[in-house]
Specification:
single chain, 133 residues, mainly alpha, 7 helices, globular
Length: 133
């Protein structure tokens, strides 16, 4: 279970990522609000993160880091606009979490094979498993 500090960090990172192109579009905001809701964070606390980012905490386990990377891939594609700045930023976030560069590249490459660029969780997990073996 994630602590409040970890939840705020996860959401802060996602909000910062959504802001890469200068604006948080409605589909991105709604996606982020849905994630916040899943974590049990109320709307006022969530909205406060747009003004005051939380301290950055790298997820502890490999599974949590992969899950956060997947959330970011979903967020990147929720507005159905593909921007190189987002791809580069996502790649760097994955590297910063210690994920294998080749697995990151493969996920970013295969996402175009799926509707709305949404990589199914099993495919994503299989990619990372293959790179750890």
């Amino acid at each position: 279970m994630n602590t409040r500090k970890e939840i705020l960090s996860i959401l802060s990172e996602m909000i910062a990522f959504a802001k890469v192109d200068g604006i948080v579009k409605d589909p991105e905001y709604n996606f982020l609000l849905g994630v916040a809701s899943q974590f049990g964070l109320d709307k006022p606390a969530f909205d406060a993160l747009f003004k005051n980012q939380s301290e950055h905490v790298i997820p502890k386990t490999e599974a949590d880091r992969i899950l956060q990377f997947h959330r970011l891939v979903l967020l990147m594609n929720v507005d159905q606009v593909y921007e190189e700045t987002e791809v580069g930023r996502l790649h760097n976030i994955g590297l910063g979490m210690g994920l294998p560069p080749s697995a990151i590249d493969q996920v970013l490459s295969v996402m175009h094979q799926y509707p709305n660029n949404v990589v199914p969780p099993k495919v994503l997990i299989d990619i990372f498993k293959a790179h750890y073996n």
